[in-house]
Amino acid sequence: MKNKKFNSYFTNFIKGSLTVLFSVLVIYGVARANTTIIPPSGTPVASFYTLSDIWTRLTTNGAAGTHSFLFADPLAGTHVTLTQIYNAIPIIDATKVLSGTSYLGIPGTMTDKAATSYTPSNVAQTIVAGYYNGSGTVATDAFLLTGNIKSGVTIFGVGGKTEVVDTTEATVPIASGTVSSGKKGFVNGALITGTMPANYAYGDNNIAYVLGVATGAGTALKNLWNGTGQGFTGGSQADGGVDDYNANTAVPVGRYSKNWTTCAATSDPCGINNSGSAFRDDSTGLIWSKKMNITTFALDDVNGQHTWFSANNCNETTGSACTKKLSSKTGCEADINAGWSLPTQKQLMQAYIDGSYGNMEPALGSYRNYWSSTTLSSSTTTAWYTGLSLGATDPNTKTNALSVRCVRSAP
Description:
Elements: H1 2-33, E1 45-48, H2 51-60, E2 67-70, H3 82-88, E3 102-103, E4 106-107, E5 112-114, E6 131-132, E7 154-155, E8 158-159, E9 184-187, E10 190-193, H4 207-212, E11 260-262, E12 277-281, E13 286-289, E14 306-307, H5 308-311, E15 314-315, E16 323-324, H6 345-353, E17 369-375, E18 382-387, E19 393-397, E20 401-402, E21 407-409
């Protein structure tokens, strides 16, 4: 009887103790969660990833399906879910992972370019995709200097030196004998040192030098031979020769003549960039124009003749002295002929001596008299003209019309 009562008391004691313990645990759990249990309004459903899903993602970068779980009491509080962790794991691009390594189970395919170096060239070079460790270089060249680059050219930001120019000259290259002694220049990439004696200058009283030595620009008087006329009795050079016109045939054999340069508009060898230029007398450096047009004063080789007044830009007056026009200019000084002038008598005579016939004046059938700007000293109504084929120089009345060529100095 006593045992039954004891058992009953003990049983009730245990039940009561468990009730108190459970209550304490619940209160303790709520306190630890720092929140309250909020009864749900319904039966919520949420999607979660399992630890196996996260392991698969971390090791293979593969996606996993979702798993739905039912629970009764969502807890409100600060926490990170496995879903958030899963979604934070990036999708790995194999091309961004170095070859020979792997990340989150993904083997890399990015080429290891290591310390790749490049040498500049005249074509663009493609930088191949890959990993560069920062030790690569772009080659340089100690000769990439301004002084080694042609004027007007820029190489990798380095501009050429003004004095570095193309010295190619195939038509009329200079030679040591055509350059004054002690002077230097470059042609076709080679340095030319002049050997030509100093030219005769006006006032030089060294007759022997002038008659026997002087060469180059200017006239070596000992060489002023007229040539031998072809088929002309007594016209040999030994007998004095003939005039350059040679009875309207080829130029005489052995005549004195200097070099002439054709002023082609394309390459501009005369250096004035003027369409009216025709020839340069390389002996004097004078540039001669094409023949003047009778109507427009253009230097275009359209044959025409002008009075001395018109050719020399002079107002025509009774006294025949030249009063220059300040407007509506004519002849060699016309507005379209800037830089040109009517040549003097001696300039025309020197052109003939230097071989104008057969050079500036075509041989065979070319015979013209050209006005000079020089007035006859004994008559202001008369001026000198010179024939560039025959060499004749005579006075003529200024109101008469003759051919016109203009002249200018080389730049």
